[in-house]
Design brief:
By secondary structure, this protein is mainly α. It contains 14 helices and no strands.
């Protein structure tokens, strides 16, 4: 593989990651609005069933020739990244503030790098700049989240948000593994969604959920659900899985730091919430932390990245 080809794939991976985060940064607002009329499980099942239908229309051809181990990996990704993560996050939003959930969920990249190091048995290097960037980003995120709202510790909600961040790390690692199978990104995303929806079914019956289609007569509810289902779910999970395929789990997860700044900007535009000078400083620090986390020094690191990508390409061809 040529250097140009490698750089093009990296560039495309970064572009899709940025696009995904731009949309995901607005989902806290949409979900908080929908929670007025919908239960957390209702929002999840409706948005991901909608996303599953959209992905099936976009690419109806099914995945064939999978092994049991591959199917178990798909199932694990659906359980962690779809069912557990969003169920925990949505329930957390009913017990604590969106600010608390936003900050705690942003710790996911930290758990991703630790899990990646554990899974690789030390082959993935723990770079100092990654932790420096994490520290800077978290300071900025806290500034963003708590300039307009005071921090109130809500043990149950905050704990659920923390578990959600850990669960997302598992999803990132599993998705990186799935990308080595060589299947189409939309097919992969659809299979993960299918498992995620199946795992949500018990939660539907264990909670007080009902169809209540009359709630969609409200244009606000309909618009937010369509955005979550078609945009933030079907489209964004496909682009995020694409980014992980070309950047890896750790490098992609760093972009999660940008979600709180995007949420603040979106809230200012949509909800007319004020943006203070401290919020602006928080945005700058968060983005600086993202950049610092991506920095690498020395030719050795670059060579290792090329070698790893070449090895993965060889696996795909096999």
């Amino acid at each position: 593989m040529t250097t140009g080809s490698y750089e093009q794939k990296q560039g495309l991976g970064h572009a899709t990651a940025i696009f995904t985060i731009l949309l995901w940064g607005t989902t806290f607002i949409c979900t908080k609005v929908l929670l007025r009329d919908f239960a957390p499980v209702e929002i999840l099942i409706l948005r991901f069933v909608m996303g599953l239908i959209a992905l099936t229309v976009a690419c109806p051809k099914p995945i064939r020739g999978t092994t049991l181990r591959q199917e178990l990996t798909f199932a694990g990704a659906g359980l962690s990244g779809i069912t557990l993560y969003y169920l925990l996050e949505n329930i957390a939003l009913t017990h604590t503030t969106a600010s608390n959930v936003s900050v705690i969920a942003s710790i996911a990249p930290f758990f991703t790098v630790l899990l990646s190091y554990a899974v690789s048995r030390g082959k993935e290097k723990l770079r100092v700049m990654y932790f420096v960037g994490f520290a800077v980003a978290m300071v900025g995120i806290c500034m963003l989240s708590f300039t307009t709202t005071k921090f109130h510790a809500e043990p149950l909600g905050d704990f659920l948000a923390l578990i959600a961040a850990i669960v997302w790390a598992f999803y990132s690692i599993l998705t990186r593994k799935i990308s080595d199978y060589g299947f189409n990104t939309i097919q992969v995303t659809r299979r993960i969604f299918a498992y995620g929806v199946v795992f949500m079914i018990p939660a539907w019956f264990l909670t007080d959920c009902h169809l209540g289609l009359s709630r969609f007569a409200d244009p606000v509810n309909l618009g937010n659900m369509l955005f979550l289902g078609l945009g933030a779910s079907a489209l964004c999970f496909a682009t995020w899985n694409f980014a992980i395929k070309h950047l890896g789990a750790v490098k992609s997860s760093v972009y999660i730091y940008a979600i709180p700044p995007i949420t603040v900007i979106a809230a200012a535009i949509v909800l007319h919430e004020p943006v203070t000078p401290l919020s602006l400083l928080g945005i700058v620090l968060t983005l600086a932390g993202l950049v610092l986390s991506e920095l690498k020094f020395g030719k050795k690191d670059e060579g290792e990245v090329h070698d790893r990508v070449d090895e993965e390409d060889d696996q795909d061809r096999k």
